[in-house]
Structures are given as structure tokens and as C-alpha cells.
Amino acid sequence: MNITAFALFLAIVLLTLLITYWASKRTQTTSDFYAAGRKISGWQNGIAIAGDYMSAASFLGIAGLIALGGFDGFLYSVGWLVAYLVVLIIVAEPLRNSGRYTLADMLAYRMKSKPVRSVAALNTIAISTFYMIAQLVGAGAIVKLLLNIDYEVSIIVIGILMILYVVLGGMLATTWVQIVKAVLLMAGTILLSLLVLGQYGFSMVEMFNQVSTKFGQHFLEPGLLYKNPLENISLGLALLAGTAGLPHILIRFYTVPTAKEARTSVVWAMFIIGAFYIMTTFLGFGAALLVGPDKIKAADQAGNMAAPLLAEALGGSFFLAFIAAVAFATILAVVAGLVISAAGAFAHDFYSNVLRGGKATEQEQIRVAKWASVGVGVASIILALLAKDQNVAFLVSLAFAVAASANLPVILFSLFWKRFNTAGAVTGMLAGLISSIVLVLISPNVMEPEQALFPLKNPAILSVPLGFLGAIIGTLLSKKEDQQKYTELYVRSNTGIGAE
Amino acid sequence: MDEKKQSTQPDWESIASSEEFQTLMRKKKRFIILSSIFFILYYFALPFFTGYFKFLNNKIVDSLNGAYLFALSQFFMAWILAILYVRHANKTDQLIEEIKRKKEVAE
């Protein structure tokens, strides 16, 4: 085993546990647990959003996709940033103004709490679980490649760490773990990019010339990886509409004191995330040139080792160890965010509001929130162990598709459509959830490509319209509801009057 | 912000029908609709034109082609639009302050 890598991994574990210890003393109330007491500042939250969002899949996966497939991998990078415009312009501030801890808070504001919360909680748990399994399975495989630690051992270690952060330190610990990770990831990526560009006289054009000479100009052109343009459009829609419906991102806006701070945090996040995804070009093409596709594929067929191997080629074993540690921190920060979002759906939405009708005491709520975090964590560990050697990459696109089809339509209608009601919200969310899952099950992700009933890997192009349609039909076929609550939400979400 | 318990609920109806709130919402919706149309078109133009046409493969500088430049421009589009939004929102914040002041006078 690489001793440097092991020492760096240990340093990250110690640092994050220190943060957790510090945060645990400041986590007393439900508002502390779910929302870090709403005391995180805008720029801190912006860095944390970036840390919550930029997963190992995007760091290692995109670098690999570009290194092996050229230009097409970059399409993901574009979608992952532009999607934040929906978050910034439409969703973040109204959500901050009208909710407390979960996405369902906003949806339940003007509607019958129990049915809306139940279905919204189900969606949050589904999205977070799909995302988490993909992250953990990927993490197990990556740690095995990097450190040669058994898959099972690394899943259990990562799982225990994420449970500790959340149970002991709540959102405050999660936030600072995400901030540390974002700083490490950006430092590692900037350093790698500079080293790559340094090889070509700091000229991007020169790097592209080299790519073109070595692999042919078509490597820089679209169409090498994705032949069907409709697939790209469907993927683009899932990323654009899905990001603004991802519960683990949206709950971060409750950690800041005001809507204005929420706005500031999205802008910070956009500059960090954008800079990061632009640099995926240097990582990907750099790995193709300086490591070579054969060596990358020999280490891992999917290309996940492109960035670490690039680090080794440029900076030797110490730099490899550093990038491996960055990847490890990346995984920890993302899974911790997922645990707290799923636990909030269980404890705040389902237990406190649906089962107990909002009458649970503060102590009971905290206790249930912590047990829910343990439950979510343990269940995810078991599922990830069972999914060993399965190809679970499609679970990430499924998570985005559910977020886009089940959550975004009802978020938009809750905020802007007066006639919208409980029945519409429930049918909309279920239509989006069920259509996404069914379409993925009959797609080439799961079925043999020739026999697949639905030809696209990403269902968004059909499931997002179905989500909207479900919400519209459900609303129009049921009775009008009290409009007073809508007026209240409309004023509150747009002005912040009465916001917590 | 402390969770101050308000003794009386604000009069939502009267705020909603006030001239300031109507102006606020008109300005907000105008920005949301115009900017959304713009970025949705700009964004989907990338998979559309790279998927169905070949002209973006034209080289611009040496090996640097239109497809990469267009993809890269998406990042700057997003950043510029984000800054424009913040400038717009800082202005509508003043309207919100106005609404809050009037509400307090009324109470």
C-alpha cells in the first residue's frame, strides 16, 4: 500500500472528525441539526453547495469520459453548471423564504400537509438512495483501485464516517466537511490543470493541436460517445431540470439566514462549479495525451483512473496520493449530504408531520432525526454491499430524472399557479417518479440494447412532460382549494415576510 | 435571523393587492420569463446543433473548433446571466424593503 496515500487519508479522517466534534457541541435543536442554526454565511454555503454537488463521478468520471471519448464528455460539464441558473433565478430564494428544513415544507405550505409530505418524502428518499448507492458503489471500486483496500472494508469505513458526521454534528459538520472537500478538490484540480497546460506552453490551442495530431481531429468533435442526438437532449433536460429538484442541494438553502444570502451562495457555487467543470477539459485531454488511453483502460475500463494516473505522470507518487485523498474527501462530503437529506424526509416530513401531526416535542424530533440518519446510513451500506460488481452508473441519471420529473414541476406550480392543489401535487409527483423508474427499467440501461422498449438511456425527455401533465390533470380533475393559503405563500416566498 | 414570534399574522391579502407588490411581481416575472427563455434556448442549442449539424466542427484557431468554443461559451453565458440576475434582484430588494416598511406602519 502507498504509505503517503494512507497518511493523507488518515489526515482527512482526523480533520473531519475534529470538525464533527466541534460541531456536535453546537448542535442542540432541530434547527441546528437540519439547518446549522441558519448561521452559515452566503459564501460559506456557496462553497458547501459546490462540495455537496461535485461528486467523485464528476471528478473521476468526467476526466475519464473525456480522456477516452473526447469532446462528448464535456457536454455533462456544461449541463452541470447551466442547471444552476434554474436554481438561482427560480427556486433558491422562494424555497428559503417558505420552508424550514425540507423541500416538502415548501410544497406542503399551501396544501394538505399529510398527502403532499408523504409523497414528497418518498421522492426525496428515492432520489437520495439512488444517488447514494451509485456514490458508494463507485467509492468502493475507486478506493480499491487507489489503495488496494477491499471493497467491503472501504464501503463500511465510508459508511460509518458519514453516519458519524451527520448523527453527531448534523448539518454544521456536514457543511464544513463539504467546505474542506471543495477547497481540496479545487486545489487539486487547479494544480493538475496548471501542470497539464505547462506542458503546452500554457496554450489551450497547443494542447488541442497535440490531441488532434495524436488522436485525430474527430476526437475533438461531438458524436464519438453519443450517437443519438435525442439522447443528448434528454440528458441535457435531466441535468437542467433535475439539479433544481435535488433535495440534498435544496436543503442547503435553509442553512443561511436570509433569501439574499441564499442568492449569494448560488453565485459563489456557480463560479466554483463552473471553473471546476471547465478544468475537466484539461484533466481529460491531459490524461489522454500524457497517460494514454491504453494505460487508462488497463487500470479501469470506465476511465475512472484517468485523473489519478495523470497526477502520477505529472507529479509522481506523492501527487497521486494527494489526488486519491481528494477523491476520498469528495466521496465523504457528498454521501454525508445525502444522509442528512434522506433523514430529514423520514424524520421531519414523515415522522414529525405525517405520523405525529406536528405535535412531536423538540427532543423527540432530534432523537428521531438521529435514528433516521443511522437507519438511512446502515441501509445504504447494506445496499451498496449487495450491489458489488453491478453497473450502477445509471442510478445517477435515474436520480436526476426523478428530481427533474417529480420535483421540479410541482415546485414551479406551487410557486406560480394559483389553481394548483393537493391532488395535482400528488399526481404530479407520482407521475414523475413512476414514469422515470419504469422508463429506466425498460431502457438500454437495464434491458439488452436491441430489445429495450424505450430507446434512450435517459428518460427525461418523456418523464418531465409526464410530471407536468400529471400535475395539471390531477389539479383540473379535483376541486379548487382555499386560495388564501396561496396568497400567503405567494407573498411570503417572494418577499420573505414571515420567513424563518 | 431570530425566529421572532409575531403576535399577529401579516395581512397577506392587502400586501398582495398593494401597488408595490404588484410592481415587484411584474418586474420579477418579466426577468424570470425572459432570462429562462434565453438560457433554455442557448443551452439546448448545443446538443441540437452538435447532434444534427456538422458546421460546429469547423476549426476556428488551429485545432480549436466551434463545438468546443460554443460549449465553453455556455459557462460564460451562465456566469454573466447570474451577475445580471443579482443586479436585478438587488433592485427588487428595495421594493421588498418598501413593502415591509408599509406593512409595519399598518400594524
From TrEMBL, chain A:
<feature type="transmembrane region" description="Helical">
    <location>
        <begin position="393"/>
        <end position="417"/>
    </location>
</feature>
<feature type="transmembrane region" description="Helical">
    <location>
        <begin position="45"/>
        <end position="68"/>
    </location>
</feature>
<feature type="transmembrane region" description="Helical">
    <location>
        <begin position="318"/>
        <end position="347"/>
    </location>
</feature>
<feature type="transmembrane region" description="Helical">
    <location>
        <begin position="155"/>
        <end position="176"/>
    </location>
</feature>
<dbReference type="InterPro" id="IPR001734">
    <property type="entry name" value="Na/solute_symporter"/>
</dbReference>
<feature type="transmembrane region" description="Helical">
    <location>
        <begin position="266"/>
        <end position="291"/>
    </location>
</feature>
<dbReference type="InterPro" id="IPR038377">
    <property type="entry name" value="Na/Glc_symporter_sf"/>
</dbReference>
<protein>
    <submittedName>
        <fullName>Cation acetate symporter</fullName>
    </submittedName>
</protein>
<comment type="similarity">
    <text>Belongs to the sodium:solute symporter (SSF) (TC 2.A.21) family.</text>
</comment>
<dbReference type="Pfam" id="PF00474">
    <property type="entry name" value="SSF"/>
</dbReference>
<feature type="transmembrane region" description="Helical">
    <location>
        <begin position="183"/>
        <end position="202"/>
    </location>
</feature>
<feature type="transmembrane region" description="Helical">
    <location>
        <begin position="74"/>
        <end position="95"/>
    </location>
</feature>
<keyword id="KW-0472">Membrane</keyword>
<keyword id="KW-0406">Ion transport</keyword>
<keyword id="KW-1003">Cell membrane</keyword>
<dbReference type="GO" id="GO:0015293">
    <property type="term" value="F:symporter activity"/>
</dbReference>
<keyword id="KW-0812">Transmembrane</keyword>
<keyword id="KW-0813">Transport</keyword>
<keyword id="KW-0915">Sodium</keyword>
<feature type="transmembrane region" description="Helical">
    <location>
        <begin position="233"/>
        <end position="254"/>
    </location>
</feature>
<feature type="transmembrane region" description="Helical">
    <location>
        <begin position="368"/>
        <end position="387"/>
    </location>
</feature>
<dbReference type="GO" id="GO:0015123">
    <property type="term" value="F:acetate transmembrane transporter activity"/>
</dbReference>
Automatic annotation (TrEMBL), chain B:
<feature type="transmembrane region" description="Helical">
    <location>
        <begin position="67"/>
        <end position="86"/>
    </location>
</feature>
<keyword id="KW-1133">Transmembrane helix</keyword>
<dbReference type="InterPro" id="IPR007436">
    <property type="entry name" value="DUF485"/>
</dbReference>
<feature type="transmembrane region" description="Helical">
    <location>
        <begin position="31"/>
        <end position="55"/>
    </location>
</feature>
<keyword id="KW-0812">Transmembrane</keyword>
<dbReference type="Pfam" id="PF04341">
    <property type="entry name" value="DUF485"/>
</dbReference>
<protein>
    <submittedName>
        <fullName>DUF485 domain-containing protein</fullName>
    </submittedName>
</protein>
<keyword id="KW-0472">Membrane</keyword>
